[in-house]
């Protein structure tokens, strides 16, 4: 099997879900020239929010990393939809912003964000190495533990 994004997803045992529809008055992606920006994606799994609550207040680091990984899966689902199903058009992941619902004393947002970063490097290879911000916030939509948005360079 050729070394493609799709083959790496298969090897990782990941099937991308259908891209979810926006939950409010926004679009899921915007393309500007060779840039594809996704809206923030929540840790949805099988159509339901998989990880809720705050890191450091009932949600542990492993659950936060799992949430970030699920968000990254949904980011790729949105990118695939925006690119007409053709993830080979992804040239590079430029930037991730990872929002972590956090207790005021929690300071390991960067470790939570690794759940998304590690997954995207695994799936995208060198093209997945990216700039990143990991930001602690008091709350996220629907009590999600993590939200991730991404910016890609596309062909």
TrEMBL record:
InterPro entries in the record: Endoribo_LPSP/chorism_mut-like (IPR013813), RutC-like_sf (IPR035959)
Native source species: Jiella sonneratiae
Residue span(s) of domain Endoribonuclease L-PSP/chorismate mutase-like: 6-148
Pfam families, per the entry: YjgF_endoribonc
CDD domains cross-referenced by the UniProt entry: YjgF_YER057c_UK114_like_1
Domain of life: Bacteria
Name of the protein in its database record: RidA family protein
